[in-house]
User: Fold DUF2007 domain-containing protein from Eubacterium callanderi.
Amino acid sequence: MERFEDRYALLKVAYSDMEFAVTRSFLEANGIKVTSREKGFGGPIRSIFMGTFTTANIEIFVDPGDLEEAKKLLKTDFSELAEEEWH
Assistant:
């Protein structure tokens, strides 16, 4: 039986629902499929009892062939673009 870790490559861990949502949206907008897994007390149960802005441990996985591109995307510095937009 194939293990989860053998099928996907761990990209990073998101420590909030918001960080996960932004990361997933950004990667998927750039054509990279995201798979996730929460460690510990997580998912819908955590959100119901503690709210959606609590700490989380959401592992973000991508296909191994997309790992380097995903890392490169996450290192993108948008500060110059933001400066141009606001001036």
In short: The CA atoms of residues 9 and 67 lie 7 Å apart. Residues 17-29 form the longest helix (13 residues). The helical segments are 4-7, 17-29, 43-50, 67-74, 79-86. The beta strands are 9-16, 34-38, 55-62.
